[in-house]
Structures are given as structure tokens and as C-alpha cells.
Recover the amino acids of this structure.
């Protein structure tokens, strides 16, 4: 043990950063263990707002045909992806012409529970206006955010 500490002292670039250590000053056994505390904490309002805004932008790109729907597959549940695929198939957000680029209004979000965010955004496509609403929930052992429901009108 002392030999390892001496090696770490001899190489300052190998010393653990304070953010890598637990409260007792020990390094975690696995790099993902350092992230475990961050996953378990609920998001604050700024994190939820930024998450909803990023996902809304990607969702509108899929619904307008700019991005393939498969790119959001890992960020959706099976039901959420089914709803998204049916909206793409129906053409819920059709462009009026090639020059019409979608413009997103402000994203309105709320958190009904610590592990969920519901959001909606107004999308302007030329002279047409659409509303897109979605729900994000923490799912799985890693607590990854996934889209569980999508609506567009």
C-alpha cells in the first residue's frame, strides 16, 4: 500500500482528483462508481429545462424529416418510439416547402415528479403552427432519461 502511495506521490498527474474521491478520500473501484451519486440525485430546474430543450430540438428534427427516427431509438421507450414512428409516418409536421425551416418557440416544461419531466413546444413551419408535447422519465438501473410519450398537432 505504501509503495502505491509513493508511486502516486512521484507522479502528480496520476493522483486522484478530489472529484474522483468519495467522502473518505478513497478512489472508487470503477469509473462508473463516481457517477453513481450523480445519477441518484434528481435534476434541478436548470438541468430539466436544458434537457427538455435539447430533446425538443432533436424531436422536431425527426418529425420534420431532417433526422432519421432511428437516432432517437435509444432515448425512447418502446411505447414512446411507437408513438414517434407513427407521427413520422403520418407526417405530423409537414413542411410547406424546402425553404420552410422549423422555428421552435420557448420550451415549457414542468416536473410532476422527481423522475419525470413533461414539456411542450410551439413549432412554426412557414404559415403553419404546430404543438409538440413529450414526457421524459428516468428509466433503467443507470437512470437514463427516456422519452415515454410524444404527441404532435
Amino acid at each position: 500500500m505504501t509503495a502505491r502511495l509513493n508511486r502516486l506521490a512521484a507522479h502528480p498527474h496520476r493522483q486522484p482528483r478530489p472529484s474522483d474521491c468519495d467522502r473518505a478520500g478513497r478512489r472508487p473501484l470503477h469509473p462508473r462508481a463516481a457517477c453513481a451519486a450523480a445519477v441518484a440525485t434528481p435534476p434541478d430546474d436548470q438541468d430539466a429545462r436544458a434537457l427538455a430543450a435539447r430533446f425538443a430540438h432533436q424531436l422536431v428534427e425527426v418529425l420534420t424529416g431532417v433526422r432519421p427516427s432511428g437516432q432517437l431509438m435509444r432515448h425512447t421507450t418502446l411505447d414512446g418510439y411507437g408513438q414517434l414512428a407513427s407521427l413520422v409516418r403520418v407526417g405530423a409536421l409537414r413542411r410547406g416547402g424546402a425553404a420552410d425551416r422549423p422555428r421552435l418557440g420557448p420550451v415549457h416544461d414542468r416536473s410532476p415528479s422527481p423522475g419525470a419531466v413533461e414539456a411542450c413546444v410551439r413549432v412554426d413551419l412557414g404559415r403553419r403552427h404546430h404543438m409538440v408535447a413529450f414526457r421524459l422519465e428516468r428509466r433503467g438501473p443507470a437512470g437514463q432519461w427516456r422519452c415515454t410519450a410524444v404527441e404532435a398537432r
